[in-house]
Design brief:
2 domains, 5 strands, alpha/beta, Zinc Finger, Delta Prime, domain 3, Rossmann fold
């Protein structure tokens, strides 16, 4: 069974790299920048360069499988564990090796997993092979910021940026989403258990109000989507739209709005969560 070809959290980048591979425009020198799994993105790009299938990277051919398992003889990760920066001699050896034909692949791909280890002198050693090297040699540079590389390197490379990671969700936001997931499932016992858990966690009225407001916003977004109100990128909004009827979504929005207002009154949280469980299950 082939290993799944993905770049976690970078679906758009993966699609762009596939399109470039199909068009033959990935480039001889590639910079992968930004935050995220740069090493995985580089393996994906290397597999696209070596793929023997019709839709690179296919993940099925021997070349793809070898690249992803780091055993392809023509995909070389450049490291120098004995020095703080990659030594000049190591980079000269890379430069010389680039002119030797691949062992079995389409290209010889040199992967630099951390360009912070490439000082300016070392980068200049690579510059000539980037400018005049053989067409079978390719270079993948991983860097959180492409500014780590000299302008002369950047001008001869194609840069692909990883999308920034999504902001970490607060506990209240996670609870609001969990509530919406339970509403999709529609099991009264699970809704009651969720509300009891909120009470047991000693949630205060203000935090409960924020939680319910976030859940209401998701419900309202789903209701708008059901009427064709835009293409929401949140999968939970789509799940709500696909699972619950417009009438149910509208009723839930009204219920949540009512309890949001009640959170402003001097009412015990236990009373609110208990009544909420009953109202949501009805």
């Amino acid at each position: 069974m082939a290993e799944e070809l993905t770049i976690p959290g970078q679906e758009q980048l993966a699609a762009q790299l596939r399109a470039a591979a199909r068009a033959g425009t990935l480039g001889q020198a590639v910079i992968l920048s930004g935050q995220g799994d740069l090493a995985r993105a580089a393996r994906f790009a290397a597999a696209a360069m070596e793929c023997q299938g019709d839709d690179p990277p296919c993940g099925l051919c021997p070349a793809c499988r070898k690249v992803l398992r780091d055993i392809h003889p023509d995909v070389i990760t450049v490291r120098d564990p004995d020095h703080k920066s990659i030594a000049i001699d190591v980079l000269r050896a890379v430069r010389s090796d680039a002119y030797i034909l691949p062992n079995e692949g389409k290209r010889k791909v040199y992967l630099f997993p951390d360009c912070a280890l490439l000082d300016p002198k070392g980068q200049n050693v690579l510059l000539k092979v980037l400018e005049e090297g053989p067409p079978h040699a390719a270079f993948l540079f991983c860097a959180e910021s492409s500014a780590l590389l000299l302008p002369t390197i950047r001008s001869r490379s194609v840069e692909w940026r990883l999308a920034p990671p999504p902001p970490e969700r607060s506990a209240g936001d996670r609870d609001a989403r969990r509530l919406c997931e339970l509403l999709c499932q529609g099991r009264a016992a699970d809704l009651a258990a969720f509300c009891a858990q909120l009470e047991n966690s000693k949630i205060d009225r203000d935090s409960l109000r924020h939680l319910l407001s976030d859940a209401r916003d998701l419900i309202c977004a789903a209701l708008a989507l059901s009427f064709g109100g835009g293409d929401w990128g949140d999968g939970l909004v789509r799940q709500l739209t696909d699972t619950l009827s417009r009438r149910r979504l509208s009723a839930l929005a009204d219920i949540l709005e009512s309890f949001i207002r009640q959170c402003g009154y001097n009412v015990g949280v236990g009373h609110l969560t208990g009544a909420l469980a009953v109202a949501l299950a009805s």
